[in-house]
């Protein structure tokens, strides 16, 4: 059954609906994520994952329902809610001609982080991701995997409580996908809540919980092991395919 938003949730959706003309993209979605929890939003292409992220990042407003971040209603207090969110979008949003540092400095300025504090945070983030020596290079010179690392560094500079990852491994080779996933999984130690949207079952297998979304509805949620057991399947991939019938979600 879908998770019911609770008092200890750092990110919650309650009965969220969104339509584009006659097409209902989200049909009363509810879920809750707690501090330090890694939740995989698993669904085939067209399931409604991107629509959910558009609502969570304030790009669009929900038609009905409630979204709360750190206790703030995103509809009523969008600035306070969005200040607690870091995002890595599916499509890159870096300026390819600016240096890595310049891209990150722009982000710190947007969040009111200036001077020495901005430099300290940028240096620490890049060092943690193994990019300290690439700081002054243009983003265009980096590989796809390293560009994603820069976006992950940027998403953490304002020290958000919630990290949203929207199909972040699209276009990456297997080694880069694995490295990015490991970096984000490690954030649980710092109490960061992560919502990782994907259509690849292998990326959901290490999540604390998996939320299966299809055609705008939450079909099931639970630990990977509980979903496999409930479906009487041999693997999470088999359980997922049994629920949705979409073969494109099998491991790549």
Structure report:
With 252 residues, this protein is α/β, with parallel strands linked by helices. It has 2 domains: 1-84 and 163-252, Rossmann fold (3-Layer(aba) Sandwich); 97-159, no CATH class. The chain is built from 9 helices and 10 strands. The protein has helices spanning 49-56, 78-82, 100-110, 115-128, 144-156, 174-185, 201-204, 224-231, 236-244; strands at residues 11-20, 23-33, 38-42, 64-69, 72-73, 85-88, 162-166, 193-198, 209-214, 217-222. Helix 5 (144-156) packs parallel to helix 6 and helix 8 crosses helix 9 (236-244). One of its GO terms (molecular function) is ATP binding.
Structural class: alpha/beta
Query: What is the CATH T-level topology of the largest domain?
Result: Rossmann fold
Rg result: 18 Å
Instruction: Find the CATH superfamily of the largest domain.
Output: P-loop containing nucleotide triphosphate hydrolases
Taking pLDDT < 50 over at least 5 consecutive residues as the criterion, the unreliable ranges are 1-5, 247-252
CATH class of the largest domain: Alpha Beta
Give me the count of strands: 10
Count, helices: 9
Quick structural overview:
With 252 residues, this protein is an alpha/beta fold. 33% of the residues lie in helices and 24% in strands.
Summarize the topology.
Elements: E1 11-20, E2 23-33, E3 38-42, H1 49-56, E4 64-69, E5 72-73, H2 78-82, E6 85-88, H3 100-110, H4 115-128, H5 144-156, E7 162-166, H6 174-185, E8 193-198, H7 201-204, E9 209-214, E10 217-222, H8 224-231, H9 236-244
Parallel strand pairs: 3-8, 3-9, 6-7, 7-8
Antiparallel strand pairs: 1-2, 1-4, 4-5, 9-10
Helix pairs in contact: 5-6, 8-9
């Amino acid at each position: 059954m879908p998770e019911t938003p609770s008092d200890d949730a750092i990110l919650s959706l309650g009965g969220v609906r969104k339509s584009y003309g006659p097409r209902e993209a989200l049909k009363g979605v509810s879920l809750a994520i707690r501090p330090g929890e890694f939740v995989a939003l698993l669904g085939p292409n067209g399931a409604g994952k991107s629509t959910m992220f558009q609502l969570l990042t304030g790009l669009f407003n929900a038609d009905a329902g409630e979204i709360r971040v750190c206790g703030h209603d995103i509809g009523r207090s969008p600035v306070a809610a969005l200040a607690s969110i870091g995002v890595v979008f599916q499509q890159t949003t870096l300026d390819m001609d600016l240096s890595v540092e310049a891209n990150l400095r722009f982000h710190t300025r947007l969040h009111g982080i200036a001077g020495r504090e901005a430099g300290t945070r940028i240096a620490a983030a890049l060092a943690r991701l193994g990019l300290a020596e690439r700081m002054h290079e243009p983003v265009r010179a980096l590989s796809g995997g390293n560009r994603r690392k820069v976006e992950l560094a940027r998403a953490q500079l304002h020290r958000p409580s919630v990290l949203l990852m929207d199909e972040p491994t699209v276009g990456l080779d297997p080694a880069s996908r694995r490295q990015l996933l490991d970096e984000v999984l490690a954030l649980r130690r710092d109490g960061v809540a992560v919502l990782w949207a994907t259509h690849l079952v292998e990326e959901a297998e290490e999540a604390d919980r998996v939320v299966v979304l299809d055609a705008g509805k939450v079909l099931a949620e639970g630990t990977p092991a509980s979903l496999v057991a409930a479906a009487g399947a041999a693997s999470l991939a088999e359980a997922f395919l049994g629920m949705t019938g979409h073969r494109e979600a099998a491991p790549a």
